[in-house]
Write a structure and sequence with these properties.
Number of strands: 14
Oligomer: single chain
Order of helices and strands: EEEEEEEEEEEEEE
Strand order of the largest sheet: 1-2-3-4-5-6-7-10-11-14
Strand content: over 45%
Structural class: mainly beta
Largest sheet: 10 strands, antiparallel
Shape: globular
Radius of gyration: 21 Å
Length: 222
């Protein structure tokens, strides 16, 4: 079992502009976390379960009423739990899984229409699963395959909470070959070309996610 406490201080971004041309205050934060870690199957699989609270003041976000400008939220609090599982179940077969529940709320603000609302683009529920297998012996040693799914739940589309971005499930895949100190691979994002919305600033500024995408990589380690 473990517990942690931290505080943060972040100066405002240099390219963030307030509509009334006043300077932004630094973003300050405070977080508490408690959790438990354990191992299973003789250490081949590890799991971490954590509960936390994060409070931030003066968060810079996009201004829905003035496109191209930003504004600051007085205070935002997020409470949640997170479960992470990772390990190598069998030689060459690895798995990473995650589930998170977040309860976010704008707790203080000078604009009464924001107080008590949920911040935009934050899903209460999200989860992911990624698994890979790499051939360990023989002529195909070093050849690997991977696949996984990502789920993101409903999210508020603006600070006024006037509309909701729907949930989505995205499937990704990968194939690679590793030999000595080099590696070549293909990473496929959004395998089934699902159309979904990734984020939004306002009802007039909603951003769709990238369609089916293939990215090739070559790397050498020295």
């Amino acid at each position: 079992m473990y517990a942690s406490y931290s505080r943060s201080f972040l100066p405002s971004r240099p390219f963030s502009i307030n509509a009334d041309n006043t300077p932004f205050e630094p973003t300050k934060g405070e977080s508490f976390e408690v959790g438990v870690k354990s191992e299973f199957f003789d250490g081949r699989l590890s799991a971490t379960l954590a509960a936390y609270q994060i409070t931030k003041q003066n968060i810079v976000v996009s201004d829905p009423a003035n496109p191209g400008f930003s504004l600051q939220i007085g205070e935002q609090r997020s409470r949640g739990i997170e479960l992470d599982v990772a390990g190598e179940i069998l030689p060459g077969w690895k798995i990473i899984a995650n589930y998170a529940y977040i309860s976010p709320e704008i707790t203080e603000d000078t604009r009464p229409e924001y107080k008590g609302n949920e911040p935009s683009n934050v899903a209460r529920n999200s989860s992911s699963l990624w698994t890979t297998y790499e051939v360990q012996t023989g002529g195909w040693k070093g050849l690997g395959f991977g696949g996984g799914v990502t789920f993101v739940g409903d999210r508020q589309g603006d600070l006024e909470n006037t509309f909701t971005l729907p949930s989505y499930v995205r499937t990704d895949a990968a194939i690679y070959y590793r030999r000595d100190n080099w590696r070549v691979g293909l990473n496929i994002k959004n395998l089934f070309d699902v159309y979904y919305f990734e984020s939004a600033d306002s009802i007039d500024s909603v951003y769709p996610a990238a369609p089916f995408t293939v990215l090739g990589t070559v790397s050498v380690q020295f």
